[in-house]
Amino acid sequence: MNRQMRRVQIQQVLRDWFAENARDLPWRRARDSYAIWVSEIMLQQTRVPTTIPYYERFLRRFPTVQHLARARLDTVLKWWEGLGYYSRARNLHRAAQEIVLRFNGQIPETKDDLLTLPGIGRYTAGAIASIAFGRREPLVDGNVERVLCRVFRIQGNPKDASTRKKLWAIAEELLPRSHVGQFNQALMELGSEVCMPRNPRCEECPLKQLCEAKRHGEQDRLPTRTVRKPPPSHVVVVGVIYRNGRILIDKRKPKGLLGGLWEFPGGKVRPGESLEAALHREVREELDIAIEVGREISVVDHSYAHFRVRIHAFECKHLSGEPRCIACADLKWVRPGELGRHAFPAANKKIIDILRPCCRGRPRPKDTKHE
Question: For the domain with range 3-215, which CATH number is right: 3.30.70.20, 1.10.340.30, 3.30.365.10, 3.40.718.10?
Answer without folding.
Answer: 1.10.340.30
